[in-house]
């Protein structure tokens, strides 16, 4: 095993761990968005439709972070 092989294996492992860490942010973000939406519906049930639409928009934006993490994984591997 030469140094190049070891370095390539190390870079792949670091990129995989980096994506795993990058997925934590969107997961926390989606949890907060959904939790606050449930809280808002509990306080104002008549706004459930509007809050649900805003929740889905918020989830889409936070999941965009996960897609950026996937793209950087493939760029660096």
From TrEMBL:
Membrane topology: Multi-pass membrane protein
Coiled-coil residue windows: none
Keyword Secreted tagged: no
Pfam family of the protein (one): ATP-synt_C
Keyword Cell membrane appears in the UniProt entry: yes
InterPro entries assigned to the protein according to its UniProt record, in alphabetical order: ATP_synth_csu_bac/chlpt (IPR005953), ATP_synth_F0_csu (IPR000454), ATP_synth_F0_csu_DDCD_BS (IPR020537), ATP_synth_F0_csu_sf (IPR038662), ATPase_proteolipid_c-like_dom (IPR002379), F/V-ATP_Csub_sf (IPR035921)
Gene Ontology molecular function, alphabetical: lipid binding; proton-transporting ATP synthase activity, rotational mechanism
Protein's cellular compartments: Cell membrane
Annotated site, Reversibly protonated during proton transport, chain positions: 63
Cited CDD domains: ATP-synt_Fo_c
Keywords on record: ATP synthesis, Cell membrane, CF(0), Hydrogen ion transport, Ion transport, Lipid-binding, Membrane, Transmembrane, Transmembrane helix, Transport
Gene Ontology CC: plasma membrane; proton-transporting ATP synthase complex; proton-transporting two-sector ATPase complex, proton-transporting domain
Location of the V-ATPase proteolipid subunit C-like domain: 15-75
TM region positions: 20-41, 53-76
Entry's family note: Belongs to the ATPase C chain family.
Biological role stated in the UniProt entry: Key component of the F(0) channel; it plays a direct role in translocation across the membrane. A homomeric c-ring of between 10-14 subunits forms the central stalk rotor element with the F(1) delta and epsilon subunits.
NCBIfam families: ATP_synt_c
Name recorded for this polypeptide: ATP synthase subunit c
Upper lineage: Bacteria, Bacillati, Actinomycetota, Actinomycetes, Micrococcales
Gene: atpE
